[in-house]
Amino acid sequence: MEQLIKIEVYFNNLVLNIPASDPVAAAWYIFSHGGWLVLFFGMLQAMAQIWLENRRELYDASINNILLAIDVPKETEQSPQAVEHIFASLASTLSRGTLYERWWKGKTQDSFSFEIVSLGGYTQFLIRTPDSYRDLIESAIYAQYPDAEVVEVEDYVNRIPLNFDTEAYDLWGTEFQLIKPQVYPIKTYPEFEHQLSQEFKDPMAQFLEILSRINSDEDVWLQIVVTPTDSSWKSAAQKEVEKIIKQTKSEGGWLSRWFTYLFIQIPGKFVYTVTETVLAGIIEPQPSSVTTMGPEKKTERTIQQLTPGEKEIVSAIERKASKIGFKTKIRLIYWGRRETFLKGRGVAGVVGAIQQYTKLNLNGFKTSKIMTTKAEYFLKQSRINRKQRKILSHYVKRSNSKGHGAGFILNTEELATIYHFPVVKVKAPLVKKADVKKAEPPFALPVYQPGMKIVASEKSIATTVTHKGSPPVNLPTIDD
Question: How, if at all, do strands 122-130 and 408-411 pair?
């Protein structure tokens, strides 16, 4: 406490010596008595950020990314839990890198983009991944869907140039945000099962039905960019649980009180005193006060005093924190020719389908005000055009950092709820699925080696039925 008072007295004496009659002299006095430090460190931080951004762009450009189209069998009985295992396998790619790699090479954590697109009404599931992780992705898919088809295709985003003709085409785009803090989960697939019949009401059915109704000269793109992250976010979940259970009303610990005093109260008094001195008493002085560093005040409840709703919330938060989390960005783009462009079909329907994952006492999705292509009042059309190009650029680059904030945490269960292959009861007509099952070769099938004498008979020769899989419409394979 005595040290804090000395610091406050020092700042007060410093302010009292500011020349009040000459603003230029006052500014020089402030700059020469420590103000230059603020300017120096601000410029240093800006230069470091510019350097990092440049190195990271070079690193991203050096990565060879590929786009994989996934066709699952028509009669698959797998639930979204199978896709949850696919997401969980990506956690092994977490790599922070050394100090040299981060600051010189610009290394960042590799990310993956899970996408569902309707190209003129033809729906396809896609995964964009660095080429070095192709085997990981394919093995994870085949482990859960042995009869699936995985084909490398060309990137569909080239269908729209960044500087598209706004007179002939229109584009609506947005980036989704969570309604509540990220520790609160959305509605997940176990909650879509009927309690009595145990029948799974797939939320993907409505979404795919809407995508299949898109006209031939329209596209709808949904992108979910996931980036492996560490478990530091789980501490916030634990604090939220404790806050709900104990209902703690606190003035904060000693560290937060010191921080408040040093970096909020004292600078605030400094700015006020400078203003008061320069303005020569135009504003009235405020009485000085010192924060009391006394014991923290708390009033707590026990877990037995929780209401049923609070118990449900606590259980949901703890369930979310018990699983692997990924930093997530979700974007949606709907575009087409102006004569057929209809927001009621390509926007309201898709956004409405995504609202299925909202649970009012927990969490849900909302569109970002900053990253939605709409504007009001002055220069409306030019602002909309600028937003269109910005969100399209972020989508094309599959950026996991640009846009509205740095993203939010979704765990494997939440991700598998909003991105999974439709179950057998979903009958959306234009969803690409594998037509023929693959068959494994017989166990005793001989393998030819140089110099080996081959003796064949009708019983020893076996044929297998395989199917390479045809590429989806407008997505040519790399081999073509």
Answer: unpaired
pLDDT for residue 391 is more than 90? yes
Q: How far apart are CA 419 and CA 235, in angstroms?
A: 27
* Residue (of 8, 124, 21) closest to 71 by Cα position: 124
User: Average pLDDT of 432-453?
Assistant: 54
Share of the chain above pLDDT 90, in %: 34
Amino acid of residue 24: V
CB atoms within 10 A of CB 146: 12
Task: Find the mean pLDDT for residues 411-428.
Answer: 82
Name the residue with tokens 């937003």: 387
CB 395 within 8 A of CB 157: yes
* Domain boundaries, given as residue ranges, for the chain: 2-45+257-297, 65-238+305-434
Count CB atoms within 10 A of the CB of residue 333. 24
| Tokens standing for residue 347 | 């926007």
Q: CA separation (Å) from 354 to 51, 207, 364? A: 38, 8, 9
Cα separation, 80 vs 141, in Å, equals 12
- Measured from the Cβ of residue 143, the count of other Cβ atoms closer than 10 Å reads 12
Residue type for 294, please? G
DSSP letters spanning 187-245: --GGGGB-TTT--B--THHHHHHHHTT--TTEEEEEEEEEEE--TTHHHHHHHHHHHHH
10 Å CB burial of residue 229 (0-12, 13-18, 19+) is middle
| pLDDT, the chain, mean | 79
What is the pTM assigned to this prediction? 0.74
Q: How far is CA 463 from CA 81, 356, 434, in A?
A: 34, 47, 20
List pLDDT tens digits, range 277-297.
555 544 455 554 444 444 455
Handedness of CA 396, 401, 405, 409 (dihedral sign): positive
